[in-house]
Amino acid sequence: MAIAQPAASTDPAPNPSPGEIVAAAPREAWVAIAASDMLVMDLAPDAAGKPRRVVIQLMPAQFSAGWVSNIRKLAAANWWDGTAIVRVQDNYVVQWGDPDGEDEAKAKPLPDGIAQIPESDYLTVRDREATTWLPAANGSYAPHHGMMAGWPIAWNADHAWPVHCYGMVGVGRNLSPDTGSGAELYTVIGHAPRHLDRNIALVGRVIDGIEHLSSLPRGTGPLGFYEAAEDRTVIRAVRLATDLPPAEQPRFEYLDSKSESFARYADARANRRDAFFNIPAGGADICNIPVTIRKITQ
Amino acid sequence: MAIAQPAASTDPAPNPSPGEIVAAAPREAWVAIAASDMLVMDLAPDAAGKPRRVVIQLMPAQFSAGWVSNIRKLAAANWWDGTAIVRVQDNYVVQWGDPDGEDEAKAKPLPDGIAQIPESDYLTVRDREATTWLPAANGSYAPHHGMMAGWPIAWNADHAWPVHCYGMVGVGRNLSPDTGSGAELYTVIGHAPRHLDRNIALVGRVIDGIEHLSSLPRGTGPLGFYEAAEDRTVIRAVRLATDLPPAEQPRFEYLDSKSESFARYADARANRRDAFFNIPAGGADICNIPVTIRKITQ
């Protein structure tokens, strides 16, 4: 989830950097993200009174559809308003939801219509046609890695699944794999914890404002949970972008993972030949080929 | 660089978690880190007046010896005192040194004896005997990954090199690969930027207090540099631990990467079978098998 860096020039360089390739990508290589696929989370302002807005893109219907459907219902019910960031574990995750969620007597009731999602939904049937294979992006965690509709995924002979890269948003759960509703969410703020793939549902990614989560003070309790209520950051509101007034709706676009520009960008991420680099890596982890997302400014 | 998590029990469980394996490791599997290999960096206290101490373990003589030697001289000369954290780029690095380092007229002079280190020193001749191969830790960036004397490394037929995992500390430089002295340092605070391997010197890792760096506000200038001097965090002092009074010297130990406990820990990181997990990954990125480091308490 790299936000495009400003490039020094859009002239074709002999060995352009990933940022230069992205900056030179043609208009038609960019895909607008639908407002109906974005969640807007407003945290309480920071100590200096500055607003803190986080924008999350929800995954498309190919993946985690049950949880995403629950999340849409929770947002429509304003369910997260007044909940909080409850956990910040360094090099791992930031987690939010109901601070009393583990206490049956005090837990905030979920709105009607929240479904229990079975374990099988961590996997989806592979759709070979929709997948862009990234030859560079091999790794330890699956035989194949690539992009599907702008999302990093892994697959084997039978199934495909989204992967836990930095900024991905997932569903907290208890021991039983069908216990996650979507009310408790987390995002990755460290090295990709790929052992969570296929064990926890991924439902989206932070596309703007992740610094408001990743720079929060680390929790001092076990697993990075905050020990005192006053250490938590209050969530003022979470809304589906379509429920905001049109002028307030965020507008973002991503570089089409099937475009020629993306292929060149991925190759340059795996083989940096721009001025600073002397030895190209010869490959790249899928999480080191983040889908480039930028604000729509025109 | 995982600080050991408290484990629920040290009884052998049928499918122990990585933390349980570490907690059950015998006394002799732990290796004390020499005080002469630790740098202590004290930042200015935080807004609440709390001290912020970061401890860095320097790499052993097998790797990056020229830069590490420079760093020892810089610390002995109190060179970093009054310098600052100048850059915090989300999902990438925190960087510190002389804010005026790029301005020849204003740059702080380096102490005598700082050597220029050649590009060839990014690589070392492979020492097969000293290496613990981790079969689980394959990846995109090198044919082999493993541990040497407690450090994550990669190697090919000719050379070995340390890898850019979370918390590793490296030497900032300009375009020419021999321009890094060790005065400007950075640590990784995001997904391992492995494309930097063999292109920048790694000299150590943060073993305590990384949260004082990783939770700093992100810089708003290009590449995450702070735009205003007052946004920077001042470095009060950096000392080699042996230059501190004995009672103030940090004491840490790491789990011997050649121990049976480490082998079991690495296997459990690659194949989580403890209660929460349903599908073991079947492998692990080298940076997802962090060397376990803990405070010596007795």
CATH topology heading of chain A: Cyclophilin
Q: Describe the main β-sheet of chain A briefly.
A: 8 strands, antiparallel, barrel
Instruction: Tell the overall outline of chain A.
Output: globular
Q: Low-confidence parts of chain A, pLDDT < 50 over ≥5 residues? A: 1-9
> What's the level 1 CATH class of chain A?
Mainly Beta
What is the radius of gyration of chain A? 19 Å
Q: CATH architecture of chain A, please?
A: Beta Barrel
Quickly count the helices of chain A: 4
Structural class of chain A comes to: alpha+beta
Look at the structure and name the CATH superfamily of chain A: Cyclophilin-like
What percentage of amino acids of chain A are in beta strands?
Answer: 25-35%
Q: How much helix, percentage-wise, in residues of chain A?
A: 10-25%
Q: Give the termini distance of chain A in whole angstroms.
A: 21 Å
- N-to-C SSE series of chain A? HEEEHEEEEEEEEEEHEEHE
Strand order of the largest sheet of chain A: 2-3-13-11-12-5-4-14
Number of domains of chain A: 1
Number of strands of chain A: 16
Oligomer category: homodimer
